[in-house]
Amino acid sequence: MTSPLPPEVSLSALGPRTRIGAGGQGTVYALADDPRWVYKEYASRLVDDVDVATLNRFVRLAAEAGPDADALLGLAAWPTAVVRKEGTVRGFLMPRVPDRFRVRLRLPRGPDTVLAQVQYLLNSDDYLLDRGLHVDDRMRLELLRDTGEALTLLHRLGVCVGDLSPNNLLFSLDGRPRCYFIDCDAMRLAGDSVLAQAETPEWHVPDADAEELATPATDAFKFGLLAVRLFAGDQQTRDPDAARRRLARPLVALAGRSLDPAPDRRPTPEQWLDALDRSIRRTPPTPPTRRGPTRRNAPRWSPVRRVVPGPGAASPRPATRGWGPLVVAAFAAIAALVGLLTANGDPSPTTRQNLPTGPWRNTAPPFAYPGSPTRIPGLVLPTGSPAGLPGYPDLSLPTYPYLGDRLPLIEVCLLTDVRVGAGLNRTSARTKAAVLAVRSFLCSINNETPPLDDPSRTQAARVAALTKRGPFAGATIIGLRTAADGSPQVNVVFEPRGAGSSAGCRRSRLSLARDGDGYRVSSLAAPVWASCP
Predict the structure, then answer these.
(1) Could you read off the pLDDT tens digit of each residue along the chain, which spans 533 residues?
(2) How far is it, in rounded angstroms, from Cα 318 to Cα 303?
(3) Which positions fall inside the Protein kinase domain (predicted)?
């Protein structure tokens, strides 16, 4: 192959090639005859879906952008030639990622040189030190500034990134920090896409059902999300206050505006540049700290994949609304009813001290109740007792009517709180239905009753893995999307009762299925460690 590249080349003209990577859309090959370029070949199932005219427009942009062409090719692995096989478009050529956007890391499997994906930077300082990365706030500001400038150029050329996420964005810390975009054929040019738009989990816009994808407004939203997570060291938060400790107040304010659910209220990346310049001037570099890896600081992230579009994750723990008064009323009802029953049974003061302090469960033993992470040993249902009058031979309790039979609403469900993260539409019917489904699921696992209908062995193991971390005081819905089959999926963070954030929360994606007029949880992804809201 010779330079410059023609706009179209034959697959047979590429010569020997070596596979260097693969993803959901296709496979990437290095070219032995010209190491400047790599070839992305679309998966066979996608070949017929490729918008060839739009792909050709991507290629022409790199050749016709004038003074901006060099800048475009310097910040992105942009398509530079369409590749055909027997007349059919099979993929395209793009620049090979420059070496400066690769990084040597100390990984759990051992030292390795990998693509410098920004997802590595969205972690705590301890994690970065354990990986052998020195990243201070000056570097973060300069990287964010370069990304904002790159987005400004792309928008001026009519390009929207769309799936702006930490696995599609690379970083370089050599000299002045720089950014570099990959998967550029997933971007949108003048309103057109090569393939259907998709988004990365946890990087969704607030309501993808209502908001058009891959617009300057969605890029502005995700740029604000990047700023918050980069300075918070957290891959999931959407709370601008999480970055307040190390991000200047004007930038926190810009991040808050960028995360506004209303697209027209979000500042453009260009509007960040002056504030970033001022903050960079006021932030001196920090000398590197050297430390070897520790077991305590094992990585707490996992690579993310791109999926079909849907509403995005939202920030943890906004102010609790709606259920607080109901919980208070439930406690009052419990107290009143227990008082009435106690008066009728006239238990001794010693007996009163042995009463459980939370609601009782209407299931078979072992008995468990909120507020106690342990079970009461020896608690069995009596044989031959009248219906609704269980006795507990190992406790010095009188026999009372089962409160669940007298007041069915007093359940663990009332004493756990399911919140909706900021950025999600709390008033939509779908969100409300998701809250009810998650609440029912949370009630079941706290009560250790089967939450799924006829679960498979894998699903039963996942439920058990989540249940053993409970009981959970509450949960936060941080993401809501539509799966490929049209069913809702929710990303949920479960918060252990009384353990505090040091114990870590658990996150899972729950798939919902229609259940009458509402939804129920039909399956869940394997629970993973997550920072507590």
Answers:
(1) 445 567 889 999 999 999 998 877 889 999 998 999 999 999 998 999 999 999 999 999 988 878 888 899 999 999 999 999 988 999 999 999 999 999 999 988 889 999 999 999 999 988 999 999 999 999 999 999 999 999 999 999 999 999 999 989 999 988 889 999 999 999 999 999 999 888 888 898 988 778 899 999 999 999 999 999 999 999 889 999 999 999 999 999 999 999 999 999 999 999 999 999 999 999 999 887 765 444 444 444 444 444 444 333 333 333 333 444 444 455 444 444 444 444 444 333 333 333 333 333 333 333 333 333 333 334 333 344 333 333 333 333 333 333 433 343 344 455 568 988 876 777 888 888 889 999 889 888 888 788 888 788 878 888 988 888 888 888 999 888 776 566 788 889 888 876 444 457 888 889 998 887 788 999 998 888 777 76
(2) 27
(3) 14-280
If asked whether residues 382 and 455 sit together in one domain, one would say: no
| Domain end call among 297, 313, 338 | 297
Evaluate whether residue 381 is within a structural domain: yes
Same domain for 77 and 199, yes or no, is no
Residue 231 forms part of a structural domain:
yes
> Which amino acid, one-letter code, is at 54?
T
Identify the CA nearest to 97 among candidates 128, 65, 74, 81: 74
Q: Which domain holds residue 366?
A: 327-411
381 and 518 in a common domain: no
Cβ(180)–Cβ(152) below 8 Å = no
226 and 347 both lie in a single domain: no
What angle is formed at CA 34 by the lines to CA 32 and CA 38, rounded to 5 degrees?
A: 80
Q: Six-digit token pair at 241?
A: 């206050």
- CATH classification at residue 254: 1.10.510.10
| Six token digits for residue 131 | 């990986």
Do 176 and 56 share a structural domain?
no
Query: What does the H/E/C string look like for 446-486?
Result: HCCCCCCCCCCHHHHHHHHHHHCCCCEEEEEEEEEEECCCC
Q: What is the DSSP string of 168-216?
A: SEEEE-SSS-EEEE--GGGSEETTEESS---B-TT---TTTTTS-SSSH
Residues 227 and 143 in one domain: yes
Rounded distance, CA 171 to CA 114, Å?
11
Indicate the pTM of the whole model: 0.59
Instruction: Check whether residue 82 and residue 17 sit in a common domain.
Output: yes
CATH of the domain at 39: 3.30.200
Q: What CATH number does the domain containing 526 carry?
A: 3.10.450
Helix, strand, coil shares of the chain as percentages rounded to 5?
A: 35, 20, 45
The domain total for the chain is: 4
In a domain, residue 104? The reply is yes
Strand bridging mode 488-496 / 472-482: antiparallel
